[in-house]
Amino acid sequence: MVAFFLLLPKGSCIFVIGYFKRKMKNSKFQIVAFLTLVVLVGCNENKQKTLFSIVDSNTSGLIFSNQLFENDSINILDNEFVYNGAGVAIADINGDGLEDIFLAGNQVDNKLYLNEGKLKFRDISIEAQIGKTDSLQWSSGVTILDINLDGLQDIYICNTFRKDSLLRKNLLYINQGNKETNIPFFKEEAAKYGLDDQTYSSHAQFFDYDNDGDLDVFIGVNRIEGINPNQFSPLTDDGTSKSKDVLYENVYIDSLDQRKFIDVSEKAGIRYHGYSHSTLINDFNEDGWPDIYVANDFLSNDLIYINNQDGSFTNKAGEIFKHFSLSSMGSDITDVNNDGRMDIFTTEMQPYYNKRKKLFQGPSSYQKEIFTRKYSYEHQYTRNTLQQNLGINPENQLPIFGEIGMFSGIQETDWSWAPLFADYDNDGWNDLLITNGFPKDVTDRDFGDFRITASRLVSKQTLIDAIPEIKIPNFMFKNLEGKGFEDVTKDWGLNFGTFSNGAAYGDLDNDGDLDLIINNINDPVLLMENHSNELHANQNYLRIKLTGDKQNLEAIGSTVITYYNNKQQRHTLLSGRGYLSQPEKTFHLGLGKIKKVDSLKIIWPNGKTQIEINPTVNNLNNYAYRPSNANSFKNNAALFSTASKNLGLNFLSKDNDFIDFNFQRTIPHKFSQFGPSISVGDINGDNLEDIFIAGSRGEDEAWFLQTPESTFIRSEVSYKNSEKLEEDSSSLLFDADGDGDLDLYLARGSAQYPSGNDLYKDKLLLNDGKGNFTDSSDAIPDVHTNSTSVKAADFDKDGDLDLFVGSRVLPFSYPSSDRSYILENQSEGNQIKFVDVTTKINPDLEFPGLISDALWTDFNNDFWPDLILAGEWMPLRFFENKKGELVEITDSSGLQNKLGWWNSLTAGDLDNDGDIDYIAGNFGRNINFQGTEDQPIRLYAKDLDNNGTIDPLLSFYLRDSIGTKKEYLYHPWQDVTTQYVGIRKKFNSFGEFGNSTLPEMFNDGLLDDATKLSFNYMETSLIENLGKGKFKIHPLPMEVQYAPVYGILLQDINDDNLLDVLVVGNDFGMEVQQGRADALVGLVLKNEGDLKMNALSLNDSHFYVPGDAKALVNVNLKNGNELIIASQNNDSLKVQEYIKKRVGKRMKFNPNEIKAVINYRNGSKRIQEVYWGDSFNSQSTQNILITDEILEIKFYNNTGETTRNITF
Q1: 645/442 Cα distance (integer angstroms)
Q2: Across 548-626, where does the E strand assignment appear?
Q3: How far, in Å, are 824, 840, 880 from residue 864 at the CA level?
Q4: 452 exposure class (CB count in 10 Å sphere: 0-12, 13-18, 19+)
Q5: What is the dihedral of CA 991, 993, 995, 1001, to 10 degrees?
């Protein structure tokens, strides 16, 4: 015998093969068995239990598979809905305290499983008599509730798919009570109750739409007949569409002595065309009446029907949401960030790894954007969307949402169906499950090419067999305390492929955590046991069961808000969630380590409230309907309100659409829609602030002159040639000729004409002191560059104002930059002259990058104005003024590695330490590609095909099929080949293209000499001035990172001597794969001291600028009021004023003063400087608001001499 002595490390898994020279019958078996046992124990010791584990169907008794039997007529080529799957519902069907399970089947029979405890179930379908009435019925959605108010759970099933309308009749199984065996039995009575709907219904939502106490029902309809659902056509909202949803009112029929559901769709205004996959019910506008959100597939718009309180609804989708998912599937609603407002998530089909993504994506089509506007569709994009509820729009009292799915990291999960929010780990934050899978992916573009080529050559079955399948894991995302989500699919035990559709959660074993049941196509149903009670034993929870009023005993439509430790959670009870399914009807709230809940507020479906104190943690709390008359909490008074229209500031910016992508297909965004700029100053010597608004191509400029009555008179002017083809990209009011009045500089740009075109010539207009301007452009160099910004300061301290004129992109040659200028004012007497001294001052300023904004500022307090530049693919660039020479110190600034798409800059002493800090607007983290220091977004640029144009190639890091992040090209194959046709020679298919990393794609050295740029820092940030040319960067709160930031304004909004921050932004010109970056609606950041900023909610601020916002300025009125004015591209001005007037008197700077030091009574001091031009395309008048907290102000001129010393 040969003996093996193995020393196994703990947790090791080793295959052991032993062999013996002679047989030893018993001992051989014993030795091998012993070794095997040791190995297996070693394996299991180190295997960490995941949050979820599969309960085998043989153990659970859940023997069910939604098996499809495809044939020549039932297949994905002939019917788009064949793989739409079926739902699942959880309810205590027999009243024994254990949640039971109903599973719907498409071609297989529906099943009901009785929970016998310990996750063991018994199939009672036959005894309960809930089988299909016809085996050809195709069931989809399922709801369990007490329809007839007898205290028993009834079952409502939606049937669809079949062309025979009789096979599409929905089923209603009325519970007849339990047999002696405690098994319920049912009777099908849909027709009796008027619920035998035949409209291709996919799902149902029961709710009390008319607030009469009983439950009505909304049925989502999904039907394609005689129409191409992917083709733009005039919207059908007149009720004639064959695919429109249905609303049934629950009425009592005296003659029948029973309740019946009556179709009231027409009079209720439920008439819009759509392909409904899911529906959510919620009181979105907080008026006490339930509203309806409908998630629609294909091009049909998602809808939000706002309840008019008179039995009718009005679709307000375009006023409430900025954009939607394109092919919306499932949907769910929850309070993601525990701020007390309900957020919405919808699923779509965007793949999450590069090869699948490139197989799925179509070419970037700006035509879709044009048709969207032409046919009045809502903007829709191919990705999941998380709509964060930002609060109530102060202008129309409707809610307003900002879409932050990309910021949250949950925008792409492939062909997704059910999203389900719940606190799966009991930490107090709702996590997100997303079910996935599609047996035959007809969107695969390689298959599409094969289908076109081979459809006439091969059989249909051969075509079907050639379609790829998408069998991927369901996704699980852990909520990171409202700051985004982390993909924990693998860590929580869900990392295996399925074709999953409907799903539901419930505490199926009554152990205090939420288990999952998931309905799969062609695979066994999944029962996932949650082990949170074992893995997180210190995490607490709260369970709440409501008993409602007599006509809605299950209190469907109720809301529960819990309060503890200055925190809150808000949960609602719906009759369906996710996709075709219904979770348990018990409220489940994780609490983390919190052991005591102070109180909870129940908002019953009729709007009445009930307060309960000290609910029992880690237990089920039952509450019956007994509302009180307690008043709801009132919001604090807001800061701002919309200014009166009587001010005379009505202005609509018009910007004719220019399609930058026609010239370079692969650029990341447009450069032609960054206006209009706003400049503020007194142009006619009446000591009143006037307003200038620049004009886009084809439009005139406008002056708004302030009157003594604090209103404005509009004056139309044109500083353009007769055809008005010039575009004012920026403007500046400054004293060019030293005569004490404000002249006007117009920078011309927007990259719509070839480089060097005469239409790019900047313009200087001199003021006669009365507001009349004459063209003096011959006083400036013959500048024909694509200018984007202009700012003024006396950089050489010779007593006059000089200019920096920044330029962005060289037209049609991205990312090459156009020329920038330092223009020195060398005027003498009446001879006005500006000279290009850029090379003399610093040659690097000729082409400093893609400049979006600039700022003259004295960052080292030596009274010489320094220069900071913001631009794309670069750090903020710092130029120290050394006696008239600008010396770059960026490399030693501390920010040299923060490569951003910097948009804007503004200056202020934010920490009251006596030096100037900055707010720098960046692109934020809510865009389709995410750059970090280790995995930056990159741009490679070169004339790859030698045709005279630059080919920009954008890359980013994305997962491959096994989860490793690698560098891939961002754009689809069609876009890349349009830009650089040579790529066609490298690949024969979309799959090959998508599988190739960028280094693999260009392993021939073609990009070795290309321009290479990086973008690794995305956050809009506070730049702390540390002194001596050193700076420290502080990302601003996450709410600022939801979109690109442009206009920035610093003001002390609450009289605490600290400068607060107002920002506006968005970018509607993003490349079309992503679409609009539009989640900002204006934001106020309250300065809490020590450079800590807190984002105020819209309800607290009422600062509301929802459009493509660019400039942001402050205007002081004669009557002492202040206006905050924002420009929006292709939209109206937003003009707002303080509700509570800021107390104090304004003190202006004298013309020779450039700085003031404000000393406060508490010992702090703030420095304030005056240069010309503030943030992106913005210019306000600088002054100081004198308050009781100010002890002293010292004013200085540009030599550092004290000009005034004023004490209070």
Answers
A1: 53
A2: 559-564, 567-572, 587-592, 599-603, 609-613, 620-624
A3: 15, 17, 8
A4: exposed
A5: 160
Q: List Cβ neighbours of 1007 (8 Å cut-off, separation of 6 or more).
A: 940, 942, 953
Count other Cβ atoms within 10 Å, centred on residue 397. Answer: 10
At residue 720, the pLDDT reads 95
**Angle, vertex CA 53, rays to CA 52 and CA 59, nearest 5:** 140
The CA–CA distances, whole Å, from 1089 to 920, 1050, 1100 equal 18, 14, 19
Q: Per residue in 98-130, pLDDT tens?
A: 999 999 999 999 999 999 999 999 999 999 999
Mean pLDDT of 1098-1108: 97
> What does the CA dihedral 747, 753, 758, 760 come to, rounded to 10 degrees?
10
For residue 41, how many other CB atoms are within 10 A of its CB? 12
Query: How many C-beta neighbours within 10 Å does residue 218 have?
Result: 27
The residue to which tokens 């469907």 are assigned: 556
Q: Among the listed ranges 220-234, 476-490, 700-714, 998-1012, which one has the minimum average pLDDT value?
A: 220-234
Task: Give, for 995, the enclosing helix (H) or strand (E).
Answer: helix 990-995
pLDDT digits (tens, 9 = 90+) for 953-964: 999 999 999 999
For all residues of the chain together, what is the average pLDDT?
A: 94
**Pair 1024, 911: CB distance under 8 Å:** yes
One-letter amino acid of 93: I
The answer to whether the CB of 614 falls within 8 A of the CB of 537 is no
Q: Which residue has the tokens 């894991």?
A: 473
- Structure tokens of 405? 């799915």
* Distance set, CA 866 to CA 797, 839, 887, 1049, 1164 (Å): 12, 17, 9, 20, 25
Rounded CA separation 853/921 (Å) = 10
Are the C-beta atoms of residues 924 and 1019 closer than 8 Å to each other? yes
Joined together, the tokens standing for residue 669 give 């965004």
Check the CA dihedral 643-647-650-651 and report its sign: negative
Could you give the residue ranges of the DSSP H alpha helices within 339-458?
Answer: 354-360, 366-374, 405-408, 445-454
Give the pair of three-digit tokens for residue 1026: 């540390």
Closest by Cα among 813, 750, 815 to 954: 815
| Confidence grade of residue 324 (pLDDT, cut at 50, 70, 90) | very high
Secondary structure (3-state) at 60: helix
Distance (Å, whole) CA 62 – CA 518: 11
Nearest CA among 528, 505, 531 for reference residue 425: 531
- Confidence band for 633, pLDDT divided at 50, 70 and 90: low
Q: Rg of the chain's alpha carbons, rounded to an integer?
A: 33
Tell me the average pLDDT across 891-899. 98
Q: 1001: buried, middle or exposed (CB in 10 Å: 19+, 13-18, 0-12)?
A: buried
- Per the document, the length of the chain is 1208
If you ran DSSP here, which 8-state letter would residue 83 be given?
T
Q: Minimal CA–CA distance to 80: which of 199, 274, 225? A: 225
DSSP SS3 for 215: coil
pLDDT at 455: 86
Query: Can the peptide bond before residue 473 be classed as cis, meaning omega within 30 degrees of 0?
Result: no
Which H helix or E strand runs over 127? helix 125-128
How far apart (Å, rounded) are the C-alpha atoms in residues 168 and 139?
Answer: 8
Enclosing H/E stretch for 596: none
- Cα–Cα distance measured from residue 937 to residue 935, given in angstroms and rounded to the nearest whole number: 7
Its pTM stands at 0.95
481 Cα distance to chain centroid: 17
d(CA 20, CA 57): 41
Structure tokens at 392: 């109530």
Measured distance CA(52)–CA(514) in Å, rounded: 10
Cis peptide before 815 (omega within 30 of 0): yes
Per DSSP, which regions of 257-397 are E strands? 258-263, 276-282, 291-296, 303-307, 313-315, 324-325, 331-334, 343-346, 380-381, 385-392
